[in-house]
Amino acid sequence: MASSLLPTIQQALCGTLGPATVHNMTALANETLSATIIQPALPGDFSSLLTLLFSFSALRDWLKLIVIGGVFESCRRLATTAYRRFIDSFFITATFDQGDDSYDWMMIWLSKQPSWAEARDLQISTKSFGLNSSAVLVPGEEEDASSLIRGTRKLAFLPSISTTQSMWYKRRWMTITRSQESTGYYNRPEDKLSIRIMTRHHVRLNSLLLEAKTEYMAAQEHSISIYVSDSTNDWRHVASRPKRPLRSIVLDPGIKDLLIDDARDFLASKTWYSARGIPFRRGYLLYGAPGSGKTSIIHSLAGELGLDVYIISLSRAGMDDTALSSLISDLPEKCIALMEDIDAAFTQSLNRDAPTPHSSGSSSSSPDGSPDSPRAHEPARTSSRVSLSGLLNALDGVGAQEGRILFATTNKYTSLDPALCRPGRMDIHLEFRLASKYQARELYRCFYLPEDEDNEDEKEDDKESVDSGYSSADNAKLIDLETSSEASVSSGSSSPVSEKVAVVGRSHRDRAPKLSRSKVSQLAEEFADAIPERQFSMAGLQGYLMAYKTRPFEAVRAVTTWIEKEGRQRSTIVAALET
Ligand SMILES: Nc1ncnc2c1ncn2[C@@H]1O[C@H](COP(=O)(O)OP(=O)(O)OP(=O)(O)O)[C@@H](O)[C@H]1O
C-alpha cells in the first residue's frame, strides 16, 4: 500500500521541489521501506517463536519485567503464607472488642503491668473501664488518708493506639496491638485490642484471661455492675456502683429476710426446678409508696447475692415487643433484671379488659404516697411501643432467659393487669408502705450509731449539753450554714439544703458527737415517738435527718416543728389538687 502511494506523492512533490530532489527522496524512501516493512514467514517451532519475540527489544524488556515481577510476587506470597503458618503454629492471637466485658478485664490488667512504666510510646488514661470510679492518683502523688480521695486508683498507663507493643507474660513473648474502627450507625470509633502470645496451646491464653478476670473481679468486689440496653439492643455496661449494705435499708421486720432467703433459695435450686419441669425464673413485684426503699433494696440485694443488675427501660425510645423479647433472651443466666415503674411504660392501662387513661402516667403519687393517689390519674406521655402481650411473652415466652431474677417496681399496683402479676411472672408481691415508728427508730439509729461497733463501749458517753465538736471558728461558720439551711428543709427536698450539707459534710464524722449505743437508742425512741405512723416516707425522714447529720439532739428536738410544717404543706397541696 505504501508503494502504491509513492507515484502520487512524487507527482505532487515534483511541482514544488523539482524532479532531481524528488528522485533522491524517492530512492531514500524506497530504501527505508524495504528496511522496515518485513513480512516474515510464521515460525514453525517454539524456539523460533521465542527468537522472533526476543527480536523486538521493547517486548523483550516487558516480558522480562513481567517474569521478574511474577517471581517476586510469588516469593512474597510464599513468605506471607509461611509467616502466617509460623504465627498460627507458634502464636495464639486473641481480639477483644470495646464494650465487651473481656476488653475491660484486659485493659485493667494491662494498666497494672509494670512494663508500661518504662514504655516510650504509651497512652495515659483516667478511664475506669467499668470499675467504680474514684479519684485518680498520678505517680508520685501521695494518697491523703484523711481526704476525700480515699479509695483512689492509679493513673492507667496503656499501650497507645495504632502501635504494637511487646512484653513478656510468664516467660512467653506477647505483643499487644490496639486499633480503632468506626462501627455502628453513627460510625462511632471503637477500640479493638489484639493480643498475640507465643504459645502453641490455649492454656497460656486461658490463664491470662483468668488472671485478668480475677483481678477485675477483685477490684469490683465492693461494687455491682449496672447494664442498660443501647440503641442497637445490646447490653452495655454503663456503671459500677458501690454495694449498699443490707443493714442500711430499714424495712418492717421480716421483709428483708423474706427477700434474701427466697432469692438465695431460688439461685440454689436449679436442679429442683428442672426436675419438676418448672421454668427456672423468679419474679418479685415491689409496690407501694414512693421513697419507701423499693429501688434501694434491689440494689442492696444485688450486692448481697453478687449479681449484676440489667435495667430494662420499657419507655426507652425504640423499645418495642421484638426489642424487649430479644433483650430478655440475651440476659445472662444469673442476674437481676430490673423494670422500674412497670406501669409507666404504657400509654394505656395495663388492664387488658378495661383500659383506663388514669391508670398510666408518671410514677409519682399523692403526698400520702398511697397507690391510688389523685396524681395517678394524670395521662402518660410515653413513646414506648411495648404492648402488654409483648411484655407477657417476653417474661415467660419460649425465648425468656432461665435463671434470672426479675424485679419490677410500681407505685400503682391496682392498675396492673392480673396476667402480669400472676405467679410464674411475679411470684412474690411485697408492699412497701410509708414509714412505721419502728422504721423511723431504726433509721435514726442508722444515722447516729457509732460506725466502729467494736469500739463503741470505749466511746465517751452522753455529752448532752451541746451537739459538740464546734469549737473552732470554721466550725462555727459551718453551724451557721447548717442552721440557716434548716428553714428550707422539707422531706425529700434536695438543693440548696443538700448542697450546703454536702459542703459541710466533708468531715462530719469528726464533728459529730460521739454517742454511746444506749444514748442513740434512747434518742431514737424519742424521735420515733414523734413521727406519726405511716405518714412520712423513709426518703422524707432520711432527707430530714440529713440536715442534722452531726446534731442528733437537735434532730429530735426539731422534729415536731418539722412535722407540723410538712402537714401544712400537704394540706396546701391537697387543697390545690382538689380545686
Ligand atoms: N426503707 C428505707 N431504708 C433506708 N433508706 C430508705 C428507705 N426507703 C427509702 N430510703 C432512702 O430514700 C431514697 C429513695 O429510696 P428508693 O429510691 O429506694 O425509693 P423507691 O421506693 O424506689 O421510690 P420510687 O418509687 O419513687 O422509685 C434513697 O436514698 C434511700 O436511701
From TrEMBL:
Where is there biased composition of kind Low complexity?
359-373, 484-501
What region holds the BCS1 N-terminal domain?
Answer: 66-249
UniProt keyword Hydrolase present? yes
Q: Which reaction does it catalyse?
A: ATP + H2O = ADP + phosphate + H(+)
Span list, region Disordered: 350-385, 484-518
The entry assigns this protein to a family as follows: Belongs to the AAA ATPase family. BCS1 subfamily.
Name of protein: Mitochondrial chaperone BCS1-B
What is the organism field in this record?
Hypsizygus marmoreus
